[in-house]
Design goal:
Blueprint lengths: L2 H30 L3 H25 L7 H11 L1 H15 L4 H15 L1 H22 L7 H29 L3
Helix pairs in contact: 1-2, 1-3, 1-4, 1-6, 2-7, 3-4, 4-6, 5-7, 6-7
């Protein structure tokens, strides 16, 4: 594979690692959430994110290897926002939460400090992959529709996060 092809493969693999980490966090939030409606919606996003992770990794052709070097390589490939979201993701999984804390987390996420940034970053990743392949002449046409579906999923995730926030506000009686 030419150097540019390797770059695309690394980018795809890192996008997969990224989505997988985010999926774990959504899953964790769902596990510790008492409200069944919120739990269901968080699990929906987690499952979509796992699906995206598997797709990106499969398209990369990269063998499954994890470790510190992957983290550093992926930060180079995807930028510092990747590191910030990855660290926040791990921190969220280490802390207990209640409805009030979850509301604050969702509020922060809506302000582009966390997972909504993930949604935008994933869309950006897909668009970057499309550009990189066009420049290198690699054919991703068979996967174009899948990339579009991932973008649609990410937009839905943003809407679901807003629904979760509204559900929590209603259940706690906060305006």
């Amino acid at each position: 594979m030419a150097e540019s092809g390797c770059e695309i493969a690394r980018f795809l693999y890192c996008a997969g690692v990224f989505e997988e980490e985010v999926a774990k966090t959504y899953g964790h939030l769902a596990e510790i959430t008492v409200d069944m409606n919120v739990k269901c919606l968080l699990n929906y996003i987690a499952n979509d994110s796992y699906k995206h992770a598997k797709m990106f990794k499969a398209l990369s052709g990269h063998p499954v290897i994890s470790g510190k070097s992957d983290f550093e390589d992926c930060e180079k490939a995807l930028g510092s926002l990747w590191r910030n979201i990855m660290e926040n993701s791990k921190m969220m999984r280490e802390t207990e939460t209640n409805n009030h804390r979850l509301l604050k987390l969702i509020d922060g996420l809506e302000k582009f400090e966390g997972f909504v940034a993930e949604e935008y970053l994933t869309v950006l990743n897909v668009k970057t992959i499309e550009l990189m392949t066009r420049e290198t002449g690699l054919n991703i046409e068979p996967y174009g529709m899948i990339f579009e579906w991932i973008i649609e999923d990410e937009k839905r995730h943003e809407q679901i996060l807003k629904m979760i926030k509204n559900l929590i506000i209603r259940s706690t009686g906060n305006p």
